[in-house]
Design goal:
mainly alpha; about 75% helix; 2 domains; about 0% strand; about 475 residues
């Protein structure tokens, strides 16, 4: 989408005015009217089409812009379908139920939310995918929190914080490789430099989650024991259920494509499900499409395990297509390009350059809802400006992660926000205040920019010597 040719060249003020109206329609409808995000996005698309008509842009061109924008998200669409299949297959194979059973043992320990955050962070670094971490291990923790009457919002915040710590710091992560690649920075130099913001954000988040963790010392744990017994009686807890997760981790480490990795893990899980649950192939196909339906007789367990399936991803997929179609219109009408061109006039100092790049990455997440575009567009738009100001490129790649990667799940209509809401069953507005890690990373980047800690003195010296 970032290479979509614009038809119009609106002024900066005009483009900003249109963008604010679009944002106002979407955010106002979702926040105050509590409308599903689909209709506000369609309304914003209609507004942009009317704007195009006023500028005498043929509808065919506008349609092509929407289609091209939607096409840029087809990779994510197929990934969502595979995750839906993975969820149902991991349910029927016992992988997620076994994770829940194991996790129930952790529920008796103090600092539950801090434990959730730490485990999701470790798994996220190992797998390199926030989506996979949240939809597997994270989903298990949601079930545990529900059973102990814990806060689902705080639990979701801990899951998302840990998952995106892994997505940000793992050398296996798509976004980490993309951020370092787009500005031509060594991958491990990029990861090392991110520790300036990541380590403090992790430590502060861990402390906050520990403080917020409930005191379970006096709680009756018989409910948890009953849930564990129900899982065992349903034949959903066994050592072989870890095989699909092991296969997933191995393939991820070997950098096998995500679709193949999810597909192989799902296939192994299906084989286990056929053997363990004694299902027919027709039943398995139905589970993969419609989701797993638990029938243990324990209402709490059944509500926790009845989910997944390709069909469960339709809400997410439809919203992603609409959001990216909106982004395609914004590019076709030249609105995004005009905004990017206009803000370059503010890049007169190192501080303003860094702060503007942070604002740009966050703004693209806010208005378009796509983290890859946030990384690509900001990286391409500001690489030259960072060079002119003598700022090392590794600082730009860090900005792309701190204001791009981890901000996307905070936006309710973004790809990550919609997916996480669908999988965890907690709205973005509910979990947003508790995604401490995701909130702290951009704040720390801004703090470093204001204080000057984000500027590499050595890079400045090198540049001056070259110019001399």
């Amino acid at each position: 989408m970032n290479h979509t040719k614009s038809i119009l060249s609106p002024t900066f003020r005009e483009a900003l005015f249109i963008l604010l109206i679009v944002f106002g329609i979407m955010s106002g409808s979702i926040i105050f009217l509590e409308a599903p995000p689909h209709l506000p996005i369609i309304s914003a698309c209609i507004l942009l089409i009317l704007y195009g008509f006023l500028k005498k842009v043929p509808f065919k061109k506008l349609e092509q812009g929407m289609i091209k924008g939607a096409q840029s998200g087809l990779g994510a669409v197929f990934l969502f379908f595979m995750i839906g299949i993975l969820l149902s297959s991991w349910m029927v194979s016992g992988t997620i139920p076994t994770l829940m059973y194991t996790g129930f043992e952790l529920a008796a320990f103090p600092y539950f939310y801090a434990i959730v955050f730490s485990i999701c962070a470790i798994v996220g670094v190992g797998i390199g995918s926030a989506f996979t971490t949240a939809s597997t291990v994270g989903l298990a923790f949601i079930g545990i929190a529900d059973s102990i009457d814990g806060s689902l919002a705080i639990t979701a915040g801990a899951i998302i914080s840990g998952a995106f710590f892994g997505d940000k710091m793992s050398p296996l992560s798509d976004t980490t490789n993309l951020a370092s690649g787009v500005v031509k920075v060594d991958l491990f130099e990029h990861i090392k430099n991110m520790m300036w913001t990541t380590v403090p954000a992790f430590m502060i988040s861990f402390i906050l989650f520990a403080v917020l963790s409930p005191d379970l010392s006096g709680q009756d744990m018989s409910v948890i024991n009953t849930l564990q017994t129900s899982l065992i009686e349903a034949n959903l807890v066994h050592w072989m259920s870890f095989i699909p997760m092991f296969i997933l981790a191995v393939l991820a480490i070997k950098k096998v494509h995500a679709l193949l990795t999810l597909g192989v893990s799902s296939f192994i899980a299906c084989v286990l499900g056929l053997v363990q649950q004694k299902l027919g192939i027709a039943e398995m196909f139905n589970i993969l499409f419609a989701g797993y339906v638990s029938s243990t007789g324990n209402q709490a367990i059944d509500s926790l395990l009845s989910r997944g399936g390709l069909n469960s991803m339709m809400f997410t997929v439809s919203l992603v297509i609409l959001a990216l179609g909106l982004g395609g219109l914004l590019f076709t009408l030249g609105i995004i390009q005009s905004i990017l061109a206009g803000i370059k006039n503010w890049l007169s100092t190192q501080k303003s350059t860094i702060l503007t790049s942070v604002s740009c990455a966050m703004g693209i997440n806010l208005f378009i809802g796509e983290q890859y575009l946030s990384i690509l567009l900001t990286g391409e738009a500001f690489a030259e400006s960072y060079e002119k100001q003598g700022i090392a490129r590794k600082h730009l790649s860090r900005v792309l992660e701190d204001a791009g990667t981890v901000v996307n799940p905070l936006v309710p209509w973004s790809v990550c926000g919609v997916f996480l809401t669908s999988v965890l069953g907690v709205s973005a507005f509910s979990y947003l205040p508790f995604t401490f890690f995701c909130l702290l990373c951009p704040l720390l980047t801004i703090l470093y920019a204001v204080s000057g800690l984000a500027v590499s003195k050595k890079q400045k010296a090198i540049r001056k010597s070259v110019e001399a």
